[in-house]
């Protein structure tokens, strides 16, 4: 095999790896997430009783974004709803464009009952990064008589069209981000 042919195959492979990133760079994303509580036994002690979220500036309400024509996680939501160990809290999807500089405005995520609050933010910074910072309030912590807030705060690099599960002993998030 000639060196030119090896280089051509290498270039084609690299373009294939980055094609989904390039497709979305000038356009829009469909962001879909499911948030659910889970009744799993655990021995962790949770003592947070006040919000600890550090709210970003330029937070945008979810209602400001267009809803997609179709969602892809409906079967996952239905499976969670059927399993007694889980209780779906929220299933939302929206379409969000990339602004100048690869920064995407953080989106305020809130549950209807006010117990779920937080945000999801995407940004291009040497790849696509997702930051999720959510808090879920409980009615009361077993024996203490105080309301407890459970926090899930994660930042990770992601690939488009892949399913991500963010885990906390008391609740979880399933996220899928796709280019349009």
What are the secondary-structure elements, in order, as H or E?
HEEHEEEEEEE
The low-pLDDT segments are: 1-25
Which whole number gives the mean pLDDT?
A: 82
Strand ordering within the main sheet: 2-4-5-6-7
Total domain count? 1
Sheet-strand content, in percent, reads 35-45%
Tell me what the structure shows:
It comes from Methylobacter tundripaludum (strain ATCC BAA-1195 / DSM 17260 / SV96). Keywords: Signal. Pfam families: CsiV (PF10972). This is Peptidoglycan-binding protein CsiV. The protein is an alpha+beta fold. The chain has one domain. 18% of the residues lie in helices and 40% in strands. The chain contains two helices and nine strands; from the N terminus they run αββαβββββββ. The strands form two sheets. Strands 2-4-5-6-7 form a five-stranded mixed beta sheet, with no helix packed on it. Strands 3-1-9-8 form a four-stranded antiparallel beta sheet. Strand 8 and strand 9 form a beta hairpin. It is globular, with a radius of gyration of 19 Å. The two termini are 38 Å apart.
């Amino acid at each position: 095999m000639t060196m030119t042919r090896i280089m051509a195959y290498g270039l084609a492979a690299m373009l294939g790896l980055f094609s989904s990133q390039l497709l979305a760079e000038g356009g829009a994303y469909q962001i879909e997430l499911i948030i659910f509580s889970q009744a799993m036994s655990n021995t962790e002690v949770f003592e947070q009783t006040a919000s600890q979220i550090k709210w970003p500036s330029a937070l945008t309400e979810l209602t400001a974004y267009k809803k997609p024509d179709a969602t892809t996680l409906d079967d996952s939501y239905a499976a969670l709803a059927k399993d007694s160990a889980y209780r779906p809290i929220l299933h939302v999807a929206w379409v969000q464009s990339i602004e100048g500089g690869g920064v995407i405005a953080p989106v305020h995520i809130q549950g209807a009952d006010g117990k779920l609050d937080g945000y999801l933010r995407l940004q291009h910074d040497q790849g696509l990064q997702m930051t999720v910072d959510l808090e879920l309030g409980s009615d009361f912590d077993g024996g203490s008589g105080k309301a407890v807030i459970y926090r899930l705060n994660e930042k990770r690099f992601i690939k488009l069209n892949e399913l991500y599960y963010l885990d906390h002993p008391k609740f979880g998030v399933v996220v899928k981000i796709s280019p349009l």
